Amino acid sequence: MRIKKGDQIQVIAGKYKGKKGKVTRVLPALGKIVVDKINMVKKHSKPKREGEKGQIVEIAAPFDVSNAMIVCPNCDKMTRVGYAVKDGDKSRVCKKCNKEF
Q: Can you list the domains of the chain with their CATH numbers?
């Protein structure tokens, strides 16, 4: 998976198209990512202790990684990701500005 936790992404398809956000969680087995303040859903939670009330909380739900593109921290543009190997270390490279990130 080319997108990692902490990356800045932009949504390219769906309800939140054009929105930018930071990846908070990656689910590689499902091919999904969770992005802060994007794809928010309401979840009903039961009371944990006696006397406590149940509540409705908003959480960010995962969405498909194919609906997002990584934003290069160097050129600040949406880009595809390439890889470069230097001295046995593999790093990600921006396809637009050819700089490592």
A: 8-73 (2.30.30.30)
